[in-house]
Amino acid sequence: MAVGLAITSEEGQYNAKMTPFVVLSCMIAATGGIIFGYDLGISGGVTSMEPFLKKFFPEVYTKLNEHTKISNYCKFDSQLLTTFTSSLYIAGLVASFFASSVTKAFGRKTSILVGGVAFLAGSALGGAAFNVYMIIFGRILLGFGLGFANQSVPLYLSEMAPPDYRGAINIGFDLCVGLGILFANLINFGTEKIKGGWGWRISLAMAAAPASILTLGAVFLPETPNSLIQNSKDHEKAKLMLQRVRGTNDVQAELDDLIKASSISKAIKHPFKNILQRKYRPQLVMAIAIPFFQQVTGINVISFYAPVLFRTMGLAESASLFSAIVIRAVATVSTITSMLIVDKLGRRALFMIGGVQMFLSQIIIGGLMAAQLGDHGGISKGFATLIIIFICIYVSGFAWSWGPLAWLVPSEIFPLEIRSAGQSITVAVSFLFIFISAQTFLTMLCHFKSGIFFFFGVWVMVMTAFVYLLLPETKNMPIEQMSKVWREHWFWRRIVGEVNEDRNKDAP
């Protein structure tokens, strides 16, 4: 018998309980976020390790240690080094489109399993690499795994979760991203101290640990009721799974909605073409805008270049890695806070609060670096500490707003017939702009210097205004009835409302 906290959504449509079965299934699936976070954290750490640079990127090693006339902001500016970092994300972008077809045809569980296996292969190749080609090919395999995992895991979590707890459960993915980064920073801090200069191999190979958990766990994961209905005519099997997932026998209302959504989905043969239709315009805009804005907050360049940034400020190798650990610990606590309040306070409020917090801290960081860090020499420990404190405030703001919500909101807004395609677009746009950020950040840091924080600060202003004007509140709304929020929104109802009126006129 399922046990848990009984809930009924605010709209009154479905009965559900937060069951141990759902919690355990979502915990296993959410480890897909750990592999993403681990890579974000590990890549920046190893690229600040001198033995790693000496072996694979001797040009950067020479600039860091011998060319004292080179600007502090330009010592890590290397096209080959950025290729190492960014090759993963272009691979993930391509893989996400393949993942869409696999997720729709074979289910969320299969895509999660494929992602885990590919990431395992990439981690093995990275740890054993003896030249730069091996290490970049390993990164491509890692990217292939992340493309599948990031496309399928948020969908899995949103479909398994009861409506009133969907926000908290889905944020579990971003919490795991943060834990993965923290885990990576701790590993880097320890392996950097290994004598002989081979500690970076452990850092790269240890990606196999979370990938193994995800791969083995995926074998035993249940498929979501949504996917069972979409890929099978056996509605009784889907009903039994829905009863187990919701912890109640009273699931007929939700089952009817799932069957209806599935029949619409099966009538659509080309979801990527259909998502361009006017009735899906709000979802398409969000699928592109939200992941784009998430990347131009500047967070990922801080995530995988934090140790590099701290080396730029003149901190020692060990101190820079330790500072990255402190920042990630702050982010993890903030993500947990978001989990606790997102379904009460709502998505829009967290977006707004986080946006203001990020903007103010970025302006202060940019001002401090402009005033205290020149092209040569270092910065005093007092000001370095102050900058790290404001980076913590900035990361905290991101970790309870744009970090988790940029994965949560897209995963809950798509109707079933375009859900897999919509999530693939979200992941592809995310990877595209992570790739662009990774590919350009070191060059931007060299040319913009401290102004790079003002650059990202302006984007935070723009995205906060976008949310205020164009994103409706989605908390507690059942995922298969999400179209209501667009029909009731002051702007989007002009588009989707007219579509519905035209459809009603055409009906017999």
Describe this structure as you would to a colleague.
The structure is a single chain. This protein is globular. Helix 6 (108-128) packs antiparallel against helix 7 (132-160). It has 2 domains: 18-223, MFS general substrate transporter like domains (Growth Hormone, Chain: A, Up-down Bundle); 271-497, Up-down Bundle (Growth Hormone, Chain: A). It has helices spanning 20-30, 32-46, 50-56, 58-65, 79-106, 108-128, 132-160, 166-191, 199-205, 208-220, 225-231, 235-246, 252-266, 271-274, 281-295, 299-312, 317-345, 347-372, 381-399, 402-413, 416-448, 451-470, 483-487, 493-506, and strands at 5-8, 15-18. Helix content is 77%, strand content 2%. The N and C termini lie far apart (47 Å). The chain has 508 residues and is an all-alpha fold. A hairpin with a 6-residue loop joins strand 1 (5-8) and strand 2. It has 24 helices and 2 strands. The longest helix is centred in the C-terminal third of the chain and has 33 residues, at 416-448. Strands 1-2 form a two-stranded antiparallel sheet. InterPro entries: MFS_dom, MFS_STP/MST-like_plant, MFS_sugar_transport-like, MFS_trans_sf, STP/PLT_plant, Sugar/inositol_transpt, Sugar_transporter_CS. One of its GO terms (molecular function) is monosaccharide transmembrane transporter activity. Belongs to the major facilitator superfamily. Sugar transporter (TC 2.A.1.1) family.
